[in-house]
Amino acid sequence: MFDAILIANRGEIACRIARTCRRMGIASVAVYSEADRHARHVSECDIAVPIGPAEAAASYLNAQAIVDAALRAGAQAVHPGYGFLSEKTVLAELCAAHGIEWIGPRPEVIRQMGSKIESKLLAQRADVPTVPGYHGEDQTPAHLLARAEAIGWPLLIKASAGGGGRGMRRVENGAQFLALLDEAKSEALRAFGDDRVLLEKLIARPRHLEVQLIGDRHGNLLHLFERECSIQRNYQKVIEEAPAAWLAPETRDRLHAHALRLGRAIGYDSAGTVEFVLEDGTPEPYFLEMNTRLQVEHPVTELVTGLDLVELQIRVAAGEVLPLAQHDIAVRGHAIEARVNCEDPAHGYRPQIGTITGYEAPVREGLRIDSGVQRGSEITPHYDSMIAKVIGFGGTRATATRRLVEGLDGFHVDGVGTNQAFLRDVVTHALFQQHALTTHYLAEAFPGGWRPAPALVHEATAAALFSRLAPALRGSQASGDPWGAAGGFRVVGRAPGAASTWVVEGLGDEPVEASLSREGTAWRLRCGAGEATALSLQLQLQEAENGRAVDVTRDGQTRRFGIDAGAEAHVVIVSHGGQRFELALSSRLDWMARPTGAAAQAQGAVRANMPGMVTEVHVAPGQQVKAGDLVAVMDSMKLLYSYAAAIDGQVMAVACKVGQTVASGQLLVEIAAPA
Length: 675
Description:
Blueprint lengths: L3 E4 L3 H14 L2 E7 L6 H5 L2 E6 L10 H11 L3 E3 L9 H9 L3 E2 L4 H8 L1 H10 L7 E2 L6 H11 L3 E5 L9 E3 L2 H19 L4 E5 L4 E10 L5 E13 L2 E7 L6 H17 L5 E9 L6 E6 L6 H8 L3 H9 L16 E8 L1 E2 L5 E2 L2 E2 L2 E3 L6 E5 L6 E2 L6 E9 L2 H14 L1 E3 L5 H9 L1 H5 L6 H5 L8 H26 L2 H4 L13 E7 L6 E8 L2 E6 L7 E10 L2 E8 L2 E9 L5 E6 L2 E8 L1 H5 L5 H7 E3 L4 E6 L6 E2 L4 E7 L2 E6 L4 E6 L6 E2 L4 E6 L3
Parallel strand pairs: 1-2, 1-4, 2-3, 4-5
Antiparallel strand pairs: 6-9, 7-8, 7-9, 10-11, 10-13, 11-12, 12-15, 13-14, 15-22, 16-17, 18-21, 19-23, 20-22, 24-25, 24-31, 25-26, 26-27, 27-28, 28-29, 29-30, 30-31, 32-39, 33-35, 33-38, 34-37, 35-36, 37-39
């Protein structure tokens, strides 16, 4: 067995691998970039070695730097985790060249399965069904169009070399094909350095199912049953569970048999996952691809089988024989995992950047939390937005769901927004418990896109307004100010306490007028037009561990909202359960006094709405543009975001360049409207 293992990764997966190493008595070696000098995975490992700048390309994707770190630390093996170089042969081959064991499959298997085209051809030769399509080498646009016409519409264009939805386009008809093909190829080339694509018939109601395999170097191969990963956004998984619900026994058997057949055909010798797509209501799963690494969602398999997949990977890489046979493995109970990301699902899943000022992870029965952050952790634009996985486990799917919800409610991260409220709504929606899942789940559960519950929005608004009122009220009472202490007596009758009215921006597309007034011992919030949103609330300002907070009590239920100052004096950031509201509060007079040209000027300024790195600039000073024209593209947390002109006009200034890292709110391009 190994004395020391270098973990060529970061975040929660590095912490999770270190945990197994510790239990096995193996020293763990962390690597870290300049941005991760104080990251949690660095402190959880026994040894830590710096490998380069914050940019992943110069650190976590630098295979030579990782091997050099392993040699310096005396590590005999490298575990790649997932992402980064886990499915690139370059690191596996460099390890072999330096006598370091690779904790993963052989490089030739990684290469074969890394190409969607080659992997599908291998599957077909192994008699594993694949989605009807084209996986050939002729990549000329005319030939691809001809093959697309033969397959039929609608279909998918997919990058051969990658995943995560990049280089993928849905095509409805022949008129769209060539333009979308060019987009897909360009994106694939930027993301993966390979612009080859394949074509696949679009499955109308697809379920995304996958089978976990584990093999050793002595010819043994086992399946560890299946997972359901159908709840996705932009082809990226949101919720995963094991086993798959609403699955016919014969379909389940086919999944396992197909996965084993493919694994045996390539001599698979580590942990890996074979992914399938199934048309809902039909019995035949089609092979999609194989991931030659540990999956993000591996904890749900561990919980229902009682096995440690990382330990099995390590033992296999050390040359040991798998210590169990297929009949030794059984599914017990149900597990569901939710990926906690630093993003704002109410605003296009915009990445959230900042410092975690408070952190709490609950510990309770049937709950597992794999986290990569702690108090003081910096969330930067350089890496993926996932910070933790919350997994509920129980004897039934309903119990697993309940425990997952309890975990999401009890997991607290302050200082940066997360998608926890969204995840909670996903798994408590009626569709989650009543129907087989498909990749259309989010569109069907939230047809207009997800939004926080109106009650939460109103209470957050009240908390923001009260945070502005409370210090003044407290000060007036302390000083004996008669105006602050005056009651509501009027000659014509008792009136409610003096109301404070603001124009609030950040609740939607348009500003909303809101007021907060005393009503006996309570407060009345009016938000927007009409009395429908007039709510009676108990409000109390608290000095919390991480700053100020407001307790909002409504109908006997109390929620605590964290209060932070925004970048500008009139902005208040209100947070609860991971959801952050950035609210701009202006008096009615200030709002009405704004310069009439300010709106047009603001529209002409194209600003970054998140931190990131500029990857493309499409305009130059003096150029004429139309509203909707692409002006720049930015990469934030491994995703590309396009910025377009909001008005017709002339480009007055380009304030960014390719490769530049920009902050949220920073000017990218300035456009002046015609006089």
